[in-house]
Write a structure and sequence with these properties.
It is a single chain. Helix 12 runs parallel beside helix 14. By secondary structure, this protein is an alpha/beta fold. The chain has helices spanning about 1-5, 20-25, 30-40, 45-70, 80-95, 110-125, 145-155, 175-190, 200-210, 225-230, 250-260, 275-285, 295-305, 305-315, 320-330, 340-350, 355-370, 375-385, 390-400, 415-425, 440-450, and strands at about 15, 75, 130-135, 160-165, 215-225, 245-250, 260-265, 375, 405, 410, 435, 460, 470-475, 485-490, 490-495, 505-510, 530, 555. The longest helix is centred in the first third of the chain and has 22 residues, at about 45-70. The protein has five domains: about 1-90, Toll/interleukin-1 receptor homology (TIR) domain (Rossmann fold, 3-Layer(aba) Sandwich); about 110-265, P-loop containing nucleotide triphosphate hydrolases (Rossmann fold, 3-Layer(aba) Sandwich); about 280-335, no CATH class; about 340-425, Arc Repressor Mutant, subunit A (Orthogonal Bundle); about 430-555. It starts with a helix and ends with a strand. Helices cover about 45% and strands about 15% of the residues. One of its GO terms (molecular function) is ADP binding. Keywords: Leucine-rich repeat, Plant defense, Repeat.
């Protein structure tokens, strides 16, 4: 007890076949032992020695009283082995140095509120159940941070534990999966003799052999292919009772394949957390400096609650004068920070070509639709393009690239910015060579100069009605052989439509300037939707024979 008081050491009382109250008050068999000892002291002939022994017994009694008042364990004729296991799992591991803890975050703002509900759910239910837990969401949302925080909170209860970070880097080749298995076995068994594994198929029985009867904690971080999980945690039967397997991923469909017991999607930072996290990184303080308050609000608004963006931008701006902040904000309107792009783009790069096309088309529709668009409307158009949008949009939603809310397609602002960057990076200095184009100046210049190319698949020119209606020649579209999506507003086209692009699926021409449908305009064999709202059209096509199926949807 003196070591506890002076050195700060831990004391864990274990009442082994003795009543705690007898220890506290020195009664019962303990009282009898003390009385016998004190009787012996009275027989001591040396007065000085006798007084020293009395003082020592007094200290013993005080120490026992203090110890008995501490929280501990009472065997009380219970199962001794179970008590020992509980002591090891609940107490001794907590007392050991935290050598197994992971670094979570420099500034752990809002982490506890995200972690605690997950830990509560994990702790509920049968103690012998093997639980598989999924944490999914877009890149930069803090999935790995949450998983690390959970690990630090509960790892002391597990003798065998492992945190496998960035599993996606191992890929799905036999060599990559084999390296992943070897690392997993090595990390979780620690000092066990290294296993010689010749193939992935041979590694699975080894994992089962060592872990099937052991209670383990496994966190598999950043999974992007089901093969990675099948190599190390393919089934609950591989692990002993009470084991917990936590998986983080950008792809919700992986969690469906594994049939996880629980799934969580970390929320973005709220109006209180976002400014605080940004301020810690930008000012080393929980709130911004007064003179930077308005600029800080603009940056936080730009980040849209994404922890990664708040961290990256805060770290980039720390210590900079206001004039550089203003310049940086101006730059952000044109170029997304590279560290943020890198994280967000991983989800896009994992798509197949058709899914990428759907994503970029949705970016186009959202960009010209001011951030939202009707899901069924876009699905119909993309279906006409042969892109299988029903499954494609589902995949994008599972990978957090698109959200569906009340029948509308939406995207996080930074995801949309990434989409614009992907579109523009093919030819940043020659917009006429981009696949999708909606910048009014670039489109106006291209139509004026008739410089359009075969690369263009989607085009939008939305001009203000306050100005005179712009006129362009139909010849400006002659080279756009792959043009599928065309939107015009307050625009007039002059000339013959004979060679107008035949790949058109969607023609949205608001304020259509003609009273009669021009000859050849509707000879579009693949047109799905024709939208001529606010038009001057008074009568159908004049002197024009429709040679091909027309759009299935007309909006006049």
């Amino acid at each position: 007890m003196e070591c506890r008081e002076k050195l700060g050491q831990k004391v864990l009382p274990i009442f082994y076949h003795v009543d705690p109250s007898h220890v506290r008050k020195q009664e019962g068999c303990l009282g009898q032992a003390f009385k016998k000892h004190e009787d012996g002291i009275l027989e001591e002939k040396d007065d000085k020695e006798r007084e020293a022994k009395k003082e020592r017994v007094k200290q013993w009694k005080e120490a026992l009283t203090q110890a008995a008042n501490l929280s501990g364990h009472d065997l009380n004729n219970g199962h001794e082995a179970k008590l020992i296991r509980r002591i090891v799992e609940e107490n001794i591991r907590e007392l050991l140095p935290s050598t197994d803890e992971l670094h979570v975050a420099k500034y752990p703002v809002g982490i506890d509120s995200r972690v605690q509900p997950i830990i509560s759910d994990i702790s509920s239910g049968g103690s012998d159940d093997v639980k598989m837990v999924g944490i999914w969401g877009m890149g930069g949302l803090g999935k790995t941070t949450v998983a690390k925080a959970i690990y630090n909170k509960i790892h002391h209860s597990f003798q065998f534990k492992c945190f496998l970070e960035d599993v996606c880097h191992h890929g799905t080749s036999q060599h990559g999966l084999l390296c992943l298995q070897r690392k997993f076995i090595s990390d979780i068994l620690k000092h066990a003799k290294p296993q010689i594994i010749s193939s992935v198929a041979a590694g699975i029985p080894v994992i089962r052999q060592h872990l099937q009867r052991r209670r383990v904690l496994v966190i598999v971080d950043n999974v992007d292919k089901v093969e990675q999980l099948n190599a190390i945690a393919g089934s609950r039967e591989w692990f002993g009772p009470g084991s917990i397997i936590i998986i983080t991923t950008r792809d919700e469909h992986l969690l469906n394949q594994l049939r996880v017991d629980m799934r969580y999607r970390p929320r973005g930072m709220n109006e209180e957390e976002a400014p605080e996290l940004f301020s810690w990184h930008a000012f080393d303080n929980s709130c911004p400096n007064e003179e930077y308050l308005e600029l800080s609000k603009k940056v936080v608004s730009y980040c849209g609650g994404l922890p990664l963006a708040l961290q990256v931008l805060g770290s980039s701006l720390i210590g900079r004068p206001k004039i550089e902040w203003e310049s940086y904000l101006e730059k952000l309107e044109r170029i997304l920070e590279e560290d943020i792009i890198e994280k967000l783009r991983i989800s896009f790069d994992g798509l197949d070509d058709t899914e990428k096309a759907i994503f970029l088309d949705i970016c186009f529709f959202l960009e010209i639709g001011q951030g939202y668009v009707n899901k069924d409307y876009v699905t119909k158009i993309l279906d006409g393009c042969g892109l299988s949008p029903i499954i494609g949009i589902s995949v994008l939603r599972e990978r957090c690239l698109v959200a569906v809310e009340q029948g509308k397609l939406k995207m996080h602002d930074l995801i949309r910015e990434m989409g614009k960057i992907i579109i523009s990076e093919k030819s940043p200095t020659q917009p006429e060579r981009l696949s999708r184009l909606w910048d009014p100046k670039a489109v106006t210049d291209m139509l004026t100069n008739k410089s359009g190319s075969e690369e263009i698949e989607a085009l939008s020119l939305d001009l203000p009605s306050s100005k005179k209606m712009a006129s362009f020649s139909t010849k400006a579209f002659v080279n756009m052989k792959k043009l599928r999506l065309l939107r015009l507003n307050y625009v007039e086209l002059i000339g013959s439509f004979k060679h107008f692009p035949k790949e058109l699926r969607w023609l949205c021409w608001h304020r259509f300037p003609f009273k009669y449908m021009p000859e050849h305009l509707l000879n579009q064999p693949k047109l799905v939707v024709l939208d001529l709202q606010f038009s001057k059209l008074r009568k159908g096509w004049k002197n024009s024979k429709v040679q091909s199926p027309l759009a299935s949807d007309f909006i006049f």
